[in-house]
Amino acid sequence: MKSGDRETVGEEGATAGRTRPAQPGLVLVFGPAGPAARTLPLDGDRLVLGRDLLHDERVSREHAEVSHSVGRWTVRDLGSRNGTFVDAVPVGGELVGRAPRVVRVGGSLVLPVADLVPLREAGVLSDESCVAGPLLQAALDRARSAVAEVLLIGGESGSGKELAARAFHQAGPHVDGPFVAVNCAAIPEGVAERLFFGARKGAYSGAEADAEGYLQAAHRGTLFLDEIAELDPNVQAKLLRAIETREVLPLGAARAQPIDVRVVAASHRDLRAEVAKGSFRADLYFRLDQADVRLPPLRARPEEIPFLVARALARMDPPLSAHARFVEACLLRPWPGNVRELLSEVRRAAGEALRAGAGQILVEHLRERAGTPLGEEHAPAAGSDGGDGEGEREPDRDALVAALAAQRGNVAATARALGVHRTQLYRWLKRHGLRQEED
């Protein structure tokens, strides 16, 4: 993996156990040159964003001022030509509150962060296979440093569990050995035992030759069992025995054969809860839980999003670029499917842009539902990372009025500009006593 811009964005927990004070500041994550990860320290408790600082011709010489005091952020437009936007809402003068998700000035996007140091020290690493900010880098480092022969990985679907499994494999004693990845949820019913343990010729009707299983295929390497909670309970028991004895008994065989396999198990489910429900074997769980790594969701790693978008677009034919408002909208959405969902949606939107003859992917190419919570009635606000326990981060009444005015009262267009579902916007309007007709 090679280093991209070495300055990037941090999250709570990335410097656990630190004794130094936090250093609030801003991170430029996107500009006219594309994705970036450039830290912008505050000058005292404030910073003026301007053309010379951001190298953006669409930014005024003194465009906006961002300040921080006692956990509160203030964003003030300085009479700019193109306006200042906080979480896609235009700032009519000054906006005070908790940290916004993203501030847009001209064609540049900056993120206010509570502590710049993790980003400045770790950077955003990017290559053809991976984009990793400080939180993901820390998780991958924990996987590499695990000394156990078995690793348990938790995290939401699409958050990068196979990346952690490969990091564990590459740091092991058999880095040149096989890496066998198995999606337990995709194994057809009734064939799991044969697929895992192999079979001898004549073991069952149609077995015309010896066949090795996943465990034999991963000999002197690593077996990655994704979504292990979906594995048949009968196979769970035999898998436990294979891990403990380091032997595998193929179907139809009279004698077990030795195996040397490191095992990585992953699930988006809470396996302890599955054990409590009786759907996962307790003895297998305790055997797997020798070392564990939990991957943070993409919404806690916003600095990665512009790089992921750019990487997906670079693979299009012809390659496309992204408009700042498109990247802004991606930063504002929680992406419950994480990296997998984001990349899938970017590719779909890029295809739409190409069909329309556009040379750039625009916010209009992003579907309204893309990246939003699956349970619409429980959707968080656009700026919420869904995991900080602070509840919804919604615009105040004046900001909502300004956003509606900018879209001439069109609720659907306003919701798209804010990066939220229309239903979420209606809840905000009702809470602030702003009545709008359904459109």
Considering the chains and any ligands shown, give keywords for the structure.
5-stranded parallel beta sheet, 31% helix, alpha/beta, disordered N terminus, 2 domains, 20% strand
What does the model show?
The chain has 439 residues and is of the alpha/beta class. The chain is elongated. Strand 6 (84-86) and strand 7 form a beta hairpin. The model is unreliable at 1-17 and 376-392 (pLDDT under 50). The protein has helices at 51-54, 117-122, 134-145, 161-170, 192-197, 214-217, 233-245, 271-277, 282-288, 305-314, 324-332, 338-355, 397-406, 411-418, 422-431, and strands at residues 25-31, 34-41, 46-49, 64-69, 72-77, 84-86, 89-90, 94-97, 103-105, 108-113, 125-126, 131-132, 150-154, 179-183, 221-226, 247-248, 257-258, 261-267, 292-294, 321-322, 360-361. The strands form 6 sheets. Strands 2-1-10-9-6-7 form a 6-stranded antiparallel sheet. It folds into 2 domains: 25-123 and 300-431, Tumour Suppressor Smad4 (Sandwich), CATH 2.60.200; 147-290, Rossmann fold, CATH 3.40.50.300. The two termini are 49 Å apart. Helix 3 (134-145) crosses helix 4, helix 10 (305-314) crosses helix 12 and helix 14 (411-418) packs across helix 15 (422-431).
